[in-house]
Every structure is written in structure tokens, then in C-alpha cells.
Write a structure and sequence with these properties.
alpha/beta; 5 helices; globular; 5-stranded mixed sheet; single chain; 184 residues
């Protein structure tokens, strides 16, 4: 994707800040992408259909991370509120890469882009069906597959607390090497 490569180059040269944004949900159902066991081994994972914590985050390849959580559904209004708040904190032009989720493509989001542009914030939409181009997907995978532990799912309070501790640690104590990810 040539346009994204150009944005990456401008970011590497220090001309812009390039953030990748998206949402994820953490719930008591847990995260089990796959598993295996021996024939005589009994394995169980406790799960519940309880509360959910929705997270919206934005990250740079340098692990600069901004996030917000809510127990409510993430709506276009929520997205606008977060991006609006972010737009007031900019020191230079910034581009946020988003996918084509309905909340990202709402009429009100498109209307706000003119306002944000005056503050130096621009939105770049990925082509449809290209989640592999959004590096924040790797953050969400690490959060669920590695950083959250089975004990964190004991209660919704424990899960939400652990999730917020992890989100606060990203870019400070927890890092991902995004330099090995190529954009093609």
C-alpha cells in the first residue's frame, strides 16, 4: 500500500506522528485462540458471560500509546470524543490510521475531520479487509494472548484492573518491536 508507505517514511523522517488506532474488547469469556492436551489430561478453562471492557487505543511504531476504556459500546460519539481530545494534545501533524469499521466511517466522524485538520490531526483509512496493515492488532493480540494471565479472569473487577495496568504499561514497561513488520 503505497500511501501508507509514504506516511511511514514521513514518520521515520520526523515530519509527522503516525498512530495506528482500533478497538478491542476484553471479557470474562477469556481468549483461547487454540489449545491441545494429552489424551489422559483433563483441562478446563473457567469462563463467564459477564461484563466487557471495550478499549480504543492508538500506537506508534515507537510504542507511544494512547488509550481509553469504557464498559459501554464504542460508538462514533465515543470515537469523536477521544480523537477530539487527542487533537488538542498534538505538537506536530499527526495521522491516525483506522480501518473501515462503521464507527470510523460515520457521517459525524467525516464531518469532524475538517475540524481536526485545522489542529493538525488527519485520518487515513486502510483498504477494506486489511487488518494485517494495522499494527495495533498486534498489541491487542499480545494483551489477550500473553500479557493477561488466567488468574486475571477470576472476576470482572480483576480483569478490568489487570487490563488497565497493562494498558498503562505499554510504551513504559511493555514494548513491541514493530520494526520487523513490513507494509506490502
Amino acid at each position: 500500500m503505497q500511501q501508507l508507505q509514504l506516511l511511514e517514511q514521513r514518520s521515520e523522517q520526523g515530519e509527522i506522528d503516525l498512530y495506528y488506532g482500533d478497538e478491542t474488547q476484553v471479557s470474562e469469556q477469556g481468549y483461547v485462540p487454540y489449545g491441545w492436551q494429552f489424551r489422559d489430561e483433563n483441562i478446563s478453562i473457567g469462563a463467564a458471560n459477564g461484563k466487557k471492557l471495550n478499549c480504543f487505543g492508538m500506537i506508534t511504531r515507537a510504542n507511544e500509546f494512547v488509550y481509553q476504556t469504557t464498559t459501554q459500546t464504542i460508538t462514533a460519539d465515543f470515537m469523536i470524543e477521544q480523537l477530539d481530545r487527542f487533537s488538542f494534545q498534538l505538537n506536530r501533524h499527526a495521522v491516525v490510521v483506522l480501518d473501515n469499521a462503521r464507527v470510523h466511517q460515520s457521517k459525524s466522524m467525516h464531518q469532524m475531520q475538517k475540524v481536526w485538520a485545522t489542529r493538525g490531526l488527519f485520518i487515513f483509512y486502510l483498504p477494506p479487509y486489511c487488518p494485517h496493515l494495522n499494527i495495533i492488532e498486534r498489541v491487542w493480540k499480545e494483551l489477550k494472548a500473553r500479557w493477561l494471565q488466567p488468574k486475571d479472569y477470576d472476576s470482572d473487577q480483576q480483569l478490568f484492573y489487570s487490563t488497565k495496568l497493562i494498558l498503562n504499561a505499554i510504551g513504559k514497561d511493555l514494548f513491541i518491536n514493530f520494526n520487523t513488520i513490513n507494509i506490502t
